[in-house]
Amino acid sequence: MKLLPACMAISILSATTACNDTSDSAGEGSSAQAEGEALEGNAALIANALSAGPSDVTDAATVIDGEGNVLRGGSNGWTCIVETPGMGPMCNDETWMAALGAMQTGGAFPTGKFGVSYMLAGEGNAPGVSNLDPAATEPTEDNMWIKDGPHMMIILPDPSMYSDMSNDVDEPVYVMWKDTPFAHLMVRLGDAEIK
């Protein structure tokens, strides 16, 4: 079952290849061993994803990998995503999941609803992001590159609500991607690296 569009996938193949390879000439014993390793691998991936949110969110959240594969079913409308090379682990409500899908297809963020995303583990091994340009892939002198520590992201129901807010990354609350269809609030809960 896939919960994100295929283009959302940022491969974490290196983390899952060993868990998916059950071929071995030794037979059934090796297959059982590989299945046990897969369960251990999934447990580590699930723990990584759940590190992004508070327990009242994560206890019943669905967990997916970076390709949208469900690692654990959930029942509370929240989805936690395993860290990938391009993004730290995150836990998103339904509005934020729709927003991620919109980003991948070039659509605008959903309006009319608040959306909440937790990234309490920060951006992990991800290189960071431009605060100005959602399409930027590396820092430049003028794209306000930042690698945030623990934070929350909030989509406001009316995009005009961002107009009088600052996009200054030195502030504890600021607008990321202001004046784009992907504007949202960043609420810093820890230190950040600003380049």
Would you mind describing this structure in some detail?
The protein has one domain (6-194). The protein has helices spanning 13-20, 28-50, 55-58, 94-105, and strands spanning 62-64, 70-72, 79-81, 90-92, 115-119, 129-130, 145-148, 151-155, 173-176, 184-188, 192-194. By secondary structure, the chain is an alpha+beta fold. Helix 1 packs antiparallel against helix 2. The longest helix has 23 residues, at 28-50.
Summed up:
The protein is of the alpha+beta class and 195 residues long.
End-to-end Cα distance, whole Å, is 39 Å
Q: Assign the structural class, choosing from mainly alpha, mainly beta, alpha/beta, alpha+beta, or little secondary structure.
A: alpha+beta
Number of helices: 4
Sequence stretches where pLDDT stays below 50 over 5 or more residues = 1-27
Q: What is the global morphology?
A: globular
Binned strand content: 15-25%
Domain count: 1
Task: Indicate the radius of gyration in whole angstroms.
Answer: 18 Å
Descriptors:
alpha+beta, three-stranded antiparallel β-sheet, eight-stranded mixed β-sheet, 24% helix
How is the topology of this model organized?
Layout: H1 13-20, H2 28-50, H3 55-58, E1 62-64, E2 70-72, E3 79-81, E4 90-92, H4 94-105, E5 115-119, E6 129-130, E7 145-148, E8 151-155, E9 173-176, E10 184-188, E11 192-194
Helix pairs in contact: 1-2
